[in-house]
Amino acid sequence: MREPMNALQRIGLVSPWRTFGRFSTAVPSRLIIAPPDIRTSDPTIASDIYAGYFSFEGRVVNTHGQSPFAIEPPSADWARRLNEFGWLRHQRGAGSALSRENARALVTDWIAICGKARRGHAWEARVIARRILSWLSQSPLLLEGADRSFYQQFLKSLARQATVLRRRMQSEAQDERVLFGAIALAELGLCAEGLASLARLGTQLLAQELQRQILPDGGHISRNPRILIDLMLDLLPLRQAYGARGQQAPVELLNTIDRIIPMLRMFRHGDGSLALFNGMGVTAPDILATILAYDDAQGVAITNARYSGYQRIESGGSIVIMDTGRAPPPVFSLDAHAGALSFEFSSRQRQIIVNCGAPEKGRQALRELTRATAAHSTLVVNDTSSCRIAPAAGQAEWLGGQILAGPRHVPVARQDALQATEVTAAHDGYTRPMGLIHQRKVKLSADGKTLTGEDKLLPAPRRRGGKVDRPYAVRFHLHPSVQVRRAASEDQVLLVLPGGETWRFMTMDAPITFEESIYVGAADGLKRTHQLVVQGQSGPRPVLKWMLHLVADAKGQGA
After folding, report:
1. pLDDT value of position 523
2. Are 425 and 407 in contact (CB under 8 A)?
3. Does residue 74 form part of some domain?
4. What span, in angstroms and rounded, lies between the C-alpha atoms of 212 and 388?
5. Rounded average pLDDT over 18-26
6. What per-residue confidence (pLDDT) applies to 9?
7. pLDDT at 75 over 50
8. CA dihedral for 26, 29, 30, 33, sign (positive or negative)
9. Do 496 and 361 fall within a single domain?
10. How many distinct structural domains can be found in the chain?
11. Rounded Cα–Cα distance for residues 161 and 39 (Å)
């Protein structure tokens, strides 16, 4: 059998016999430009770093005067963040000679301790790419007042890292790491004198990977909104670098930027945060605002993202965002969730129905929990997820948590009318194990005051098991700011938002129970919250109808 080609072989830049990764990157004579780092900085973090405190992925380490690169890291993800050098921007934000000297000393430490090892977390493809981009954007901070010896070490290290990155991009999995690696190679080639061939290589690979990974509606093939943010934070400075060198940016880059911004608006709630789907966690509002400020056209949100598998309904200040997509390809599914047909609902600046979200990388047990279907506002059959996810440890550790099986057929119908907008979708994630299809219909009135829903469990055609009664639970996770009050009957509850706005949630003669839940989308850490749960059997009445209706606005007046 013929070996599958990697990303570089596919675009004809290399052959299986003479790969481009065998050639070393030339040491540039100097840096010509420094792309901006549009991520926000915090001078207080620079003070912590100077004092020897390094905080990444929920772990804080006091180095007690040692180099952070010489100590045993508390976790792999902590080590990755340290070696990416994204924290250099906080040194820049401090804007002092002391912060410059501290930053330069830490880079010198890294070159001496880690710069030649070429193994460990510091030399993973994504980490190398991030470090190259960080060093380039913070080069004014690092090089101002530096002696010639440091300048030469700095340039030699960048060339060495680019060489290893090219090799890692061939040997590691062909996922988004190739795309971020291409960005780093292109940017280094543009910023440094004498690396025009590297700029051409990076540009060609970047164009190829953007075509492969960015869908026509602007979503990423992984279906993870977080990757779109990370991409924009790197693509926008890269676009400026092409302009600064008097070169035309590839059309694929320009088109990608134009498509991603409306897609980010599609995920955005009224409070500015992004919906919690497929790996999305905390939204930094300042970062999102920075990205959207680059939208010269001030475009509107996409409503029907059929390639990415999402739907958005917005009426009268209310927003529904719904997952109507298939499971992503396995290599891109490491952060994907089993949240088929889940939805989030918000009213103006207040979120009401949410998903649990994705925690920081270091919290593996919590990460596995929040990937399950039960952590989403959707229907769960027999307490079983709609996707089969490989464990991140044990015999299947080499799969790294990929989705092995999940929804492949997800038909979607949308009707936009004057009175209401309705979305109907179904998924086959339960077809193979149980012979069932989950169908969900949601409708939002034109005034935004009434959201109705219908969940059905249907026997799949030509599949056994669909006629067997199976227990199900429809879960509605609540934002931590929502207070729950019992109404007069067991099939109704009142949801009270901060400020007094009140919504009534009701079902058609199905009791509503309360259960505990968690929310990991808050900037100040994990929050305890509640979920509404409605239980039933798949037959003979496999239909659950429910409704959310605004009964009082923030002033306490009836809607």
Report:
1. 82
2. no
3. yes
4. 25
5. 61
6. 44
7. yes
8. negative
9. yes
10. 2
11. 23
For residues 546 and 505, the answer to whether their CB atoms sit within 8 Å is: yes
Whether 284 is in a domain gets the answer no
Global model pTM greater than 0.85: yes
Q: Which residue has the tokens 């997952």?
A: 323
Q: Considering the domain boundaries, does residue 213 fall inside one?
A: no
Task: Identify the pLDDT of residue 557.
Answer: 67
Q: Which residue is listed with tokens 């035309």?
A: 248
| Domain range for 530 | 307-552
Q: How confident is the model at residue 41 (pLDDT cuts 50, 70, 90)?
A: confident
CA distance 53 to 458: 56
For residues 238 and 27, which has the higher predicted lDDT (pLDDT)?
Answer: 238
Let me know whether 378 and 498 are in one domain.
Answer: yes
103-147 tens-digit pLDDT: 999 999 999 999 988 789 999 999 999 999 999 999 999 999 899
Domain CATH for 153:
1.50.10.100
**Tens of pLDDT, residues 451-498:** 999 999 998 887 655 566 889 999 999 999 999 999 889 999 999 999
Amino acid present at 436? L
Cβ burial of 527 (10 Å; 0-12, 13-18, 19+) is: middle
Confidence of residue 182 (pLDDT cuts 50, 70, 90): very high
Distance from chain centroid for Cα 12: 31
The CA distance from 55 to 61, in Å, is: 6
Sign of CA dihedral 513, 519, 522, 527: positive
* Mean pLDDT along residues 199-214: 96
Q: Cβ atoms within 10 A of the Cβ of 404, count?
A: 14
Instruction: Please determine, for residue 426, whether its predicted confidence score (pLDDT) is greater than 90.
Output: yes
| Both structure tokens of 394 | 């044990």
CA distance 83 to 110: 8
Of 152, 180, 207, the one marking the end of a domain is 207
Minimal CA–CA distance to 215: which of 295, 325, 79, 339?
A: 325
Looking at residue 535, what DSSP letter applies? E
In a domain, 465, yes or no: yes
Beta bridge partners of 531: 477, 515
Instruction: Give me the CATH number covering residue 503.
Output: 2.70.98.70
Angle at 52 between CA 50 and CA 54, to 5 degrees: 100
Structure tokens, 354:
């949410």
User: Which contiguous run of DSSP H or E holds residue 477?
Assistant: strand 471-478
Query: CB-based burial of residue 397 (10 Å sphere; 0-12 exposed, 13-18 middle, 19+ buried)?
Result: exposed
Task: Name the pairing type of β-strands 420-427 and 412-416.
Answer: antiparallel
Last residue of a domain, one of 207, 224, 239: 207
Give the largest Cα separation in the chain, rounded: 80
Residue 371 sits in the same domain as residue 520: yes
Mark whether 183 and 321 lie in a shared domain.
no
Exposed e or buried b per residue across 219-255, where buried means at least 16 C-beta atoms within 10 angstroms of its C-beta: bbbbbbbbbbbbbbbbbbbbbbbbeeeeeebbebbee
